[in-house]
Design the sequence.
């Protein structure tokens, strides 16, 4: 079984994904980490080769990761690829949402090439929100609740047969 975490940048997909995988006793894959390991920092890929090149790399890494059982965290924009959207039909998809107020302190690291401030984040989320919602089997807000509470809720949903 593959459980896929999707959502906007800074929603907590990696952090929550690691804990969810540990809780479910399954492997964890972060597709952005795999991209960095194979190709270098994501901002550098964007700067040197552009977004289309990055998305091609991302698609290849995402396709491989979705074939593995466990918890898979996708980069925020991975879902804009139609092939990835189709592949997600075979997975349990969890959408992590977060409020603009909560992400303000999370986006200052400079590691997100398409998000430089809260306003750019809001525009990006608005452009992708319909895709996120359409793909989601379960939604959890990460704005202000303890991460362990969210992990337990998602784990219960998975273990109870995704009602």
Sequence:
């Amino acid at each position: 079984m593959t459980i896929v975490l999707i959502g906007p940048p800074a929603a907590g997909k990696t952090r929550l994904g690691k804990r969810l995988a540990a809780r479910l006793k399954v492997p964890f894959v972060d597709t952005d980490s795999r991209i960095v390991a194979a190709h270098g920092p994501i901002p550098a890929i964007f700067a040197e080769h552009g977004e289309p090149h990055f998305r091609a790399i991302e698609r290849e890494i995402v396709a491989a990761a979705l074939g593995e059982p466990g918890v898979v965290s996708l980069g925020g924009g991975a879902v804009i690829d139609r092939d990835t959207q189709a592949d997600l039909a075979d997975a349990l998809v969890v959408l992590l949402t977060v409020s603009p107020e909560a992400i303000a302190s999370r986006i200052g690291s400079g590691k997100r090439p398409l998000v430089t401030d809260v306003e750019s984040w809001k525009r990006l989320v608005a452009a992708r929100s319909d895709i996120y919602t359409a793909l989601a089997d379960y939604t959890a807000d990460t704005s202000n609740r303890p991460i362990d509470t969210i992990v337990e809720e998602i784990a219960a949903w998975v273990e109870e047969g995704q009602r």
Summary: The beta strands are 2-6, 28-30, 70-73, 92-97, 138-141. The first strand starts at residue 2 and ends at 6. The two ends are 16 Å apart (CA to CA). The mean pLDDT is 91.
